[in-house]
Amino acid sequence: MDLVQRGARNRRTPYYEATQRHGPKGFTVYNHMYFPIRFDTFEAEFETLLHDVAIWDVAVERCLEISGPDGARFAQLLTPRDLSRCAVGQAKYVLICDRDGGIINDPVLTRMDETTFWFALASSDALLFARGLRNAYPELDVAIREADVAPLQVQGPKSRDLMRALVGDSILDLPYYWWRHAEIRGIPVVITRTGWTSEVGYEIYLLDTSKGGQLWETLLEVGRPFGARPTGPSDIRRIEGGIFNWGADMTYEDNAFEMGLERLVDFGLADAACLSIAAYRSIRERGVERRIVGVELDGAPFPALNNVQWPASSGGERVGSVTSAIHSPRLARNIGYCWVPAGLTTHGTRLEVATEWGDRWATVVAMPFVDPEKRIPVS
Asked: How far apart are CA 81 and CA 111, in angstroms?
């Protein structure tokens, strides 16, 4: 951390002091907060996630809270996914989109009551976007703030055992993408059956943020018999699972159809109900000129996640860029995502990529690379 300028404008999560005791080996800044990226090698943490329990601090995913008498109407303005189909107690993966369909963020939304919604944000200033949008709808009675909650990821095949040890057998009945209130040694939390891993897992939202260190150490203590370890996010597993990273793989310049996420757009919504739905009707009619695809890259294993986007070429002409790429130990392949023109999305298409570790050939393949039917996290 002495290599990072530590000023008051960059905030610490409620778990910061506890994570320091476990020797984090790197940090990044995410939503203006310090975010530990790993405690061991990426490969070792990947193995923990696949076989035991990985625990990591995602309090950096700040929760945009929409509430008030018109909370439901305003929340619907933000996303083209029909929120009338989201019950209280349920969660949904959604896109926050601008009026041109550009993706401002891709959070997990939880419906806390009829008019209160939490959006767990990727690293972008979506809170400011929402507050700005409110100015265009002065007739709506809505409150917009950052909820004082702090999520943790508890992921991996033995996460069920750990959660049962923490809160009892009933947690095993929590369906995928639903949530419930609980207490862990007297600490109030919300537990969701969600995660950023494509593995079985949970997220624990700490409601009393003064108890961050206590909750962190409790999870590691109770989780010891299940191989629980502190980790950072696993880019290996999230790329295997076809999970995108806002800011790296997509930004506000990209839309749901280009990302292959058109399932998150409900065209039954009225134009007035959602800021982006009219744009998406037009995009559906005219089609898109570019898409993001999965690629396998040949050659020696990449030693790390790419630091920059890599130029991708076809026939000697620059046509796109690789946004995320890493070596998957279990697939024994380099895998990643690449933006290409719509005419180059056919499986088997070959591209030349200038990587940080030399020029490589990339082949367009289907994604997700592992468990395409998403049976693992639902199981």
From this structure: 13
**Token pair for residue 283?**
């995009």
| 225 neighbors 158 (Cβ within 8 angstroms) | no
Interval 279-304 mean pLDDT: 98
The residue type of 277 is I
Q: Of 287, 311, 336, which one is at a domain's C-terminal end?
A: 287
Please report whether residue 223 resides in a domain: yes
HEC-encoded secondary structure of 142-196: CEEEECCCEEEEEECCCHHHHHHHHHCHHHHHCCCCEEEEEEECCEEEEEECCCC
pLDDT tens track for 325-352? 999 999 999 999 999 999 999 999 999 9
Q: How many helices (H) and strands (E) does the chain have?
A: 10, 21
Instruction: Write the CATH number for 99.
Output: 3.30.1360.120
Q: What is the mean pLDDT of residues 161-168?
A: 98
- Read off φ and ψ for residue 176, nearest 5 degrees: -60, 130
The total number of structural domains in the chain stands at 2
Last residue of a domain, one of 287, 319, 348: 287
Token readout for 252 is 């506000």
Residues 321 and 354 in one domain: yes
The pLDDT score that the predictor gives to residue 8 is 82
Taking the whole predicted model, whether its pTM rises above 0.90 is answered as yes
* Per-residue model confidence (pLDDT) at position 1: 53
If asked whether residues 247 and 301 sit together in one domain, one would say no
Residues of the chain with pLDDT > 70, as a percent, come to: 99
The average confidence (pLDDT) of the chain is 97
Residue 202 corresponds to which amino acid? Answer: Y
Q: In this structure, are 316 and 215 located in the same domain?
A: no
